[in-house]
């Protein structure tokens, strides 16, 4: 284990096959002086490189921190890296492969600071095979771009099961083709799942959530969100009335693309109980006035909107749940209560 201390505008490179700790903001150094380029293990020739388990910590400057980097030809096996950005605008990479050959990424943890960060679990820009690890990518309070496993070349990509967590800023989070969990904690954000079973969680703000080609779980959270499930039997989740008011672009009701609304009964109240919504609590009509006091959900066929009525009264209690795409249909069995 070796420790490298950065000062002002340094390039610090740990040797091959060595576990290294690199710190860009040591005690006694002013954070504003640090603008370093830090690498755990670097290999620029031809052959094999096995990276160590590195810990890289950026300071308050604009840092470029990379766990294992291979710029030549051959095989790179990344270690289990922890990469921490400071308060500056950082570029954090777990395992990077820019040549031709194979890259096997480790299980990385990347955490951005308060600046505007770009965090990527495993990135492959060449031609060949990328096997990504199970990555945890956590953005700070800035405007972040978070990627689980990203493939820019031609070949095969096998991604890990990633967890992407945005901060309070306006983030862009992109998963891969495996099952993953994507969570936002504020800002006007975009979440894009891959072809696996994705759990996409929005928060406050006007978020955009887009699932992939499998059964996805989309919860926009508070704010007027835009939800796209993609192909597969997706579930659009609303935990309270404050989560309502979203736009759903592709609600499906056919085999292979049979989507559902998942409604938290306790969060919406109105006498709802977990289970399937009874037909006596649902109506589809031209307009969204309840026909009797038992009605709780109304699908307005005039404009493809779904409404919740907590008391079945025309006078009060209406909440717009979602505005659906043209020609969409909703029936009682499309609404599940939890």
From TrEMBL:
The protein's Enzyme Commission number: 3.1.3.1
Q: What enzyme category does the UniProt record give? A: hydrolase
Q: What keywords is this UniProt entry annotated with? A: Hydrolase, Secreted
Q: Name one GO cellular component term.
A: extracellular region
Task: Offer an example of a GO molecular function term for this protein.
Answer: alkaline phosphatase activity
Q: Does the keyword Hydrolase apply?
A: yes
A Pfam family annotated for this chain is HemolysinCabind
Subcellular localization is given as: Secreted
**Record flagged with keyword Secreted:** yes
SUPFAM superfamilies reported in the protein's UniProt record: beta-Roll
Domain of life, source organism = Bacteria
Any coiled-coil regions, as ranges: none
**What's this protein's name?**
Alkaline phosphatase
The species is Rubellimicrobium mesophilum DSM 19309
């Amino acid at each position: 284990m070796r420790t490298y201390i950065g000062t002002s505008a340094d390039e610090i490179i740990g040797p091959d096959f060595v576990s290294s700790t690199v710190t860009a903001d040591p005690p006694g150094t002013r954070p504003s002086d640090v603008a370093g380029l830090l690498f755990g293990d670097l290999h620029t020739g031809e052959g094999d490189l096995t990276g160590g388990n590195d810990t890289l910590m950026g300071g308050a400057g604009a840092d470029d921190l990379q766990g294992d980097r291979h710029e030549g030809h051959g095989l790179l096996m990344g270690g289990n890296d922890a990469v921490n950005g400071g308060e500056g605008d950082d570029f954090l990479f777990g395992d990077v492969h820019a040549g031709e050959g194979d890259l096997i990424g480790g299980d990385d943890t990347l955490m951005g600071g308060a600046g505007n960060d770009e965090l990527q679990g495993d990135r492959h820009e060449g031609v060949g095979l990328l096997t990504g690890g199970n990555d945890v990518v956590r953005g700070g309070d800035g405007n972040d771009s978070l990627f689980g496993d990203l493939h820019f070349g031609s070949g095969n990509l096998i991604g890990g099961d990633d967890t992407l967590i945005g901060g309070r800023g306006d983030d862009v989070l992109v998963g891969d083709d495996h099952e993953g969990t994507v969570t936002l904690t504020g800002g006007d954000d975009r979440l894009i799942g891959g072809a696996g079973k994705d759990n996409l969680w929005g928060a406050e703000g006007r978020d955009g959530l887009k699932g992939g080609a499998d059964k996805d779980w989309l919860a926009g959270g508070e704010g007027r969100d835009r939800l796209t499930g993609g192909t597969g039997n997706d579930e659009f989740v609303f935990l309270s009335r404050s989560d309502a008011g979203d736009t759903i672009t592709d609600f499906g009701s056919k085999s292979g693309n049979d989507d559902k609304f998942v409604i938290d009964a306790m969060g919406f109240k109105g006498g709802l109980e977990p289970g399937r919504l009874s037909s006596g609590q649902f109506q589809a009509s031209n307009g969204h006035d309840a026909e009797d006091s038992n009605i709780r959900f109304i699908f307005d066929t005039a404009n493809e909107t779904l409404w919740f009525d907590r008391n079945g009264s025309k006078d009060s209690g209406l909440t717009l749940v979602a505005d659906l795409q043209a020609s969409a249909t909703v029936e009682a069995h499309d609404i599940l209560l939890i």
